[in-house]
Specification:
By secondary structure, this protein is of the alpha/beta class. It is built from eleven helices and eight strands. The strands form two sheets. The protein has a four-stranded parallel sheet, sandwiched between helices. The mean pLDDT is 95.
């Protein structure tokens, strides 16, 4: 079995080692062909929760990606806004994927009305662009405005997902990788009769088919 070595970039700074590795563990558990090396950017302790912060983080994402790229087969940016993904694709020779566009494309493939849960007052651009023309509704989780607000907010997550279900959505897309950190997809599947798409798992699907080309 060919192993794909992934350089995973986390956009929340200052996490301890176990927290930093959480998304890598999700990828390796979901896709046995992936081996993940994770590094977090500096300077963003609460993650990227505004469009301005997403833009500000791009140089730091580029810095980390350039350090990882020589030793990996692909780069993955673990953020639903896909910050820096376009720039990285121009700068690097390895494939680059972002959680937001992967989530959106997986939602599009379902061919049904998709409900998007957000932590902010907008749908991340990468998700919205991938779902352009699709039936969609969205809800911001009450009391949450940044990634670090999500721990302890599961009841509000369930309420927001229930509201989308009531709007006729047949599937839920989680438009922040912080939802992956707290296990929101599993909790929602247990609480509601609905398909739930996890952004980190969706990102893994975009990587898992890449053939290893490095010796």
């Amino acid at each position: 079995m060919t192993t794909i070595r992934v350089g995973l970039i986390r956009v929340v700074s200052g996490l301890d080692h176990d927290q930093t590795q959480a998304h890598g563990r999700i990828l390796e558990r979901s896709y046995p062909t992936l081996t993940v090396v994770t590094e977090a950017i500096d300077g963003f302790p609460d993650g990227l929760y505004t469009e301005e912060m997403e833009r500000q983080a791009v140089p730091e994402i580029l810095r980390v990606a350039r350090r990882l790229a020589p030793s990996v087969d692909a780069i993955a940016v673990s953020c639903a806004a896909d910050p820096g993904v376009r720039e990285l694709r121009k700068a690097l020779s390895v494939p680059v994927v972002g959680a937001g566009s992967c989530l959106g494309l997986m939602g599009r493939a379902l061919g049904t009305k998709l409900g998007i849960l957000t932590i902010g007052s907008y749908v991340p651009q990468a998700v919205a662009e991938s779902l352009q023309g699709c039936a969609m509704a969205w809800q911001q989780v009450e009391g949450v405005r940044r990634t670090t607000d999500l721990p302890g907010a599961m009841n509000a997550v369930v309420r927001a997902a229930t509201a989308l279900l009531d709007e006729g959505c047949r599937a839920i897309g989680l438009a922040c990788t912080g939802f992956s950190t707290i296990g929101a997809a599993e909790a929602l599947r247990e609480a509601l009769p609905i398909v739930v798409l996890d952004p980190v798992v969706a990102m893994g699907a975009g990587i898992a088919c890449i053939s290893r080309t490095r010796g």
